[in-house]
Specification:
16 helices; 80% helix; mainly alpha; 2 domains; Growth Hormone, Chain: A
Length: 411
């Protein structure tokens, strides 16, 4: 039986699109705007400041498994609401920080909150509410959140110029709380069956034979060779992507491109990421997600080749298109492949293992790339390593296409 009114899952997807955009904007992108004024006030080094941001990434990765386990058992509503409350309070605390120790404590706490309110819990919610139209629902969320930097970087800069960095951060913290706390608290629900609904829409009636979400138990999924192949592939891909993404502006400057043009070129990557996500949704319905992932990694490898062979405007432009589109699609492909292969029942815990590997890659790769640059004096060695890592990810993805998965079971 179909419903005449809109499926509630779409209201949840729109809600998460709003809250993810705000959360990423405040917890992730705003930091770069306030580095310079914090350096000027405190006299801390760039490395000391970025160390706080690195803590967020590391703690969020460490919290991935307990957060995933909680969501599998209790749903995301209470967790994401409390995460928003904590994030608001800690961003306000950031605006008042006076010592480096206090700064690090704030960002470690934001790592815990980030694990509770950023992409992974949102993807877990979508995995429960959508089966057939999951890719479209994920696209709705990541399309909006993909524009977070476009929205919040100029907003943060305007607040900084108008009020100074402390008041600007205070305003951002209050804005995050006022927007995301009520949306998480009042709009999220655990499963469609809580409202008498079926996934993707439709009303559950007494005549329906309703099957709960299917999925392999966590331990069974961990015994699947394909899971570890995919984890390795995404880990290698993340190392390659993070190494070049963080250093892209310095790389462009090093080859003679002025800073303003380099910043604008980097901003275009955000646009191409959104384009990649828009194209991913229909592809996911026509091809197996493993095949699509292979195509994504091939495109990432091509982007690295563009930088290795030269640095003309055409090659840099080709890199921006291939790299941005591949990264945008990769964000959607991770939750899609896990649900397709292992089901949604234990998605939170299964996904958390892959998330930990990806987080480590995002944290380590920029640091190692910086060390290699310091030793070599240019980025050529880094670019060759990035290309090699992307190529290895492609090979591993190709191997995974031949793997079989234990048939899904009702859990």
């Amino acid at each position: 039986m179909r419903r005449n009114k809109p499926y509630y899952g779409w209201f949840i997807a729109i809600t998460l699109a709003c809250t993810e955009t705000i959360s990423w904007g405040v917890l992730y992108f705003a930091f770069t705007v306030f580095i310079t004024p914090m350096e000027a006030e405190f006299g801390w080094s760039r490395a000391e400041l970025i160390g706080g941001f690195s803590l967020l990434l590391l703690v969020a990765g460490a919290m991935a498994f307990p957060v995933g386990a909680y969501i599998d058992k209790h749903g995301a509503r209470r967790l994401m609401t409390l995460g928003s409350v904590g994030a608001m309070l800690l961003v306000i605390a950031w605006s008042q920080v006076q010592t480096l120790t206090g700064f690090y404590l704030v960002w470690a706490g934001l790592g815990v909150c980030g694990a509770a309110i950023l992409y992974e819990p949102a993807f877990a919610v979508i995995a429960q509410w959508f089966h057939v139209r999951r890719s479209l629902a994920l696209t709705v969320i990541t399309f909006a959140a993909g524009l977070s930097s476009t929205i919040f970087l100029p907003l943060c800069d305007a607040l900084l110029r108008a009020f100074g960095w402390r008041t600007a951060v205070l305003i951002l913290g209050l804005f995050l709380g006022c927007m995301t706390i009520p949306l998480h608290a009042f709009m999220l629900r655990r499963r469609p069956s809580d409202l008498g609904l079926l996934p993707d829409g439709g009303v559950k009636t007494d005549d329906d034979t309703f099957e709960p979400p299917r999925g392999l138990p966590f331990r069974a999924a961990m015994q699947e060779r394909i899971f570890w192949l995919l984890t390795l592939a995404f880990g290698l891909s993340t190392l390659a992507a993070a190494a070049i993404r963080v250093h892209f502006i310095p790389y462009l400057i090093s080859i003679g491109i002025d800073a303003s043009t380099a910043a604008a070129a980097t901003g275009i990557i955000g646009v191409t990421q959104v384009v990649g996500r828009v194209f991913f949704a229909p592809l996911d319905r026509r091809f197996s997600v493993l095949t699509v992932i292979l195509g994504i990694f091939i495109m990432q490898t091509l982007s690295a080749v563009c930088l290795v062979v030269g640095h003309s405007a055409v090659l840099v432009g080709a890199f921006i298109v291939f790299f941005g589109a591949s990264q945008g699609a990769a964000t959607l492909s991770r939750p899609s492949v896990l649900v397709e292969l292992f089901g949604s029942t234990h998605y939170g815990r299964i996904s958390s293992v892959l998330t930990i590997v990806v987080t480590i890659g995002n944290t380590v790769a920029p640091l190692v790339a910086g060390m290699l640059y310091d030793q070599a004096g240019d980025y050529q060695l880094v670019l060759w390593i990035v290309m090699g890592l992307a190529l290895l990810a492609t090979v591993v993805a190709l191997v995974s296409l031949r793997e079989r998965v234990t048939p899904l079971v009702t859990a």
